[in-house]
UniProtKB/TrEMBL annotation:
Species whose genome carries this gene: Chlorobium phaeobacteroides (strain BS1)
GO BP, sorted A to Z: cell wall organization; peptidoglycan biosynthetic process; regulation of cell shape
Name the record gives this protein: Glutamate racemase
Record-linked Gene3D superfamilies: 3.40.50.1860
Pathway: Cell wall biogenesis; peptidoglycan biosynthesis
Keyword set, alphabetical order: Cell shape, Cell wall biogenesis/degradation, Isomerase, Peptidoglycan synthesis
Enzyme superclass (EC): isomerase
Family, as annotated: Belongs to the aspartate/glutamate racemases family.
Catalytic activity: L-glutamate = D-glutamate
InterPro entries found in the cross-reference section: Asp/Glu/hydantoin_racemase (IPR015942), Asp/Glu_race (IPR001920), Asp/Glu_racemase_AS_2 (IPR033134), Glu_race (IPR004391)
Catalytic residue list: 76, 188
Amino acid sequence: MTLSASSPVGIFDSGIGGLTVVKAIQALLPSERIIYFGDTARVPYGSKSQVTIRKYAQDDTGILMKYQPKLIIVACNTVSALALDVVKRAGHGIPVLGVLEAGAELAVENSRNNQVGVIGTRATVLSNAYPLAMNALNPEVEVFSAACPLFVPLAEEGFIDHPAAEMIAREYLLPLLDHGIDTLVLGCTHYPILRKMIAEIAGQEVRIIDSAEAVALKSKEMLAGNGMLNGSQCHVFPHLLVSDLPQKFKSLCELFLGKDIPDVELIEV
């Protein structure tokens, strides 16, 4: 497989959440071609077993590999926590970047009091991957985690500022805030869709770490280091693939990205 700077960046997630990564990469690297796969038939991943999550990671990587990507971004914290090795193996030497490591690194850099909160799916929180990653960078960091399983369906339904969403968010976040955290990691790529509401509850003293922004910065660093940044001045809309409900995905994309988008391609997994 011959790769070049014009080869695409492949991104996958369990649903629409990874569009936060697409948006961040487009903002930072507008010339990059993006192939995005959202596994809308099997969302959410965070409530599944590790065996199932690892199988899905294998499937998702195989779909992206058909497009010969120069970089694979795992825009799913659950897969980043439990199956990054599967993606690397299936990628046959193509660089792989997980949102978890990028988010952990940015959180450690930004915390002033070494008290960091992490919110994510049950699978991500139970994996203990964020505390391990942060403590490897700074053993002084104390990490407080909370599973927020209802955030993914709320984001998928577009309940961005719904009163029910705010009530649920307070239930999840207030116990974390009681620990005196000064940094909060959105440990699932669906959560930035609810960022405004989360930030209002957390307050101005708490720095919100969006793993999508973190992974965009890391992507630029990796591509530049490999001499693979696309120098073209053309801005191409991402090629969007889903495993179910393309029309619903298209309408949510338009709501989230704020623009009309081309048709979404339906594929089998």
